[in-house]
Amino acid sequence: MDNLILYSAIVLAILMAIPLYRAVIGPTVLDRFMGVSAIGTQTTVLLIMIGFMYHRVDMFIDIALAYALLNFISVLAASRYFHKQKGLTEEIKS
Amino acid sequence: MTVYISGLLIVGGLFFFLIGSIGMIRLPDFYSRLHAAGIIDTMGLLLSMSGLALLILSDFNLGNILSALKIILIVVFIYLTSPTATHAIVDAGIRAGLKPWSKK
Amino acid sequence: MKTQQRKTSFFLTFFILFLFWVIFSGKFDSFHLSLGVISCFLVIWITSDLLLVTPDMAKFIRLFMGFTLYIPWLIWQIVLSSIHMIPIILSPEIEKKINPRIIKIKSRVRDEVGLVTFANSITLTPGTITVAANIHGDMTIHAIDDECAASLPGDMGEKIAKLFAD
Description:
heterotrimer; A: 94 residues; mainly alpha; 0% strand; B: 104 residues; 3 helices; elongated
């Protein structure tokens, strides 16, 4: 069973490259936020899998919870901030 | 037995993560990509987290029950906050004047 | 607010907060439990006008029972619509399969919490995203194809309207 968790964690880490691609090339700033938010959700799962590998799930769950919180706050704050930015619309037009 | 079910759930969660990630690349515009991000946030998270919680519960004692409860609380928390984050992003897009892609 | 109602909702909030404390701390000795009691009282004291909003016990219990029935149904809807999204995303000609449009619907729900629940449920179901909602029940929704657009408000609106009917 340890092997399954290990391989799932590796697959998940590789899967995180796809939203990362979107976050890097994304035509608008909002696409980048979306990619970062998806990576954050996958990281929450990955942290618990890492906890299984080290046999310390009780500790890593707290880290995952804090990570989920921070992910929510950062996406919310960043998209509120870009509300008023002229740079967003200019990037869309170009 | 529980172990096999949880392994199946984790693999299912990874499959939906894959579907959501592919959707984020292939869909044509920003609004429709948000639907694919929604799959990652709801279905992939639900399946993989329930698989991990079942895997913890296969060794049954009080500490593990608390850990499984915490995992369920993480899922509840993300289910409460993910629509809010999605709405914040969509709202920023609408206010910036981003036009939705549509069929000709 | 009457004193009796205030007391009820105070103990209800305290009970919920303390349950969360016990789950997250995971220690049952008297030192940690008393720390939990102190911090729960502090939180209730600071946020008293934010958290103590439950008007009466009967409505709270009715809502609680309604939600325990509603949430499994919502999860089933999420599963169904995720499976509906798989062939759309994997199809080689993706631009022929999807038909994104913005639709406007009118909801019968008037309760504020009910509207928030409805909007969040729509966003949680893959395929539909709530763009805007207001207190009169007008909702603007971005749907990815015809089937998702046709499914609203549908069963979900009925269930929430029944749940929050006075």
